[in-house]
Amino acid sequence: MKKMWKKFDALTGKCYMNMIGAGEEFEVWNEAFQVLMDIISSGRENNPDFAKELVDLDDATDFGHDIGGWLEDYLDELEMRRQHDKVQKVCEKLIDIFRWKEDSPSDLRFRIAESMGE
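Above: the chain sequence. Below: its structure as tokens.
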């Protein structure tokens, strides 16, 4: 699991370099999202209660990866690039894989509705 987190950190670093104009490849954002999904899947294979809520990911890592912040930036980047289908898929995936008892997925639902309107 540590290797996966290191890979996620490396990819998110590239994402932010891309965001400030130091990189040109957007695909790194999608790769980082896939690694995050792999981390969640792997964690749940070992422990079915792993990260049942989105906030649990940040709690479990002592907020060392700012997953919530990164996801918000990822969705913002998708919206800026007018990748509305991808916004919808990512939001639906996040709604599906977490319980949403501590937090509400209303922001994700709003992004879905907004992307459908575009």
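The mean pLDDT is 92.
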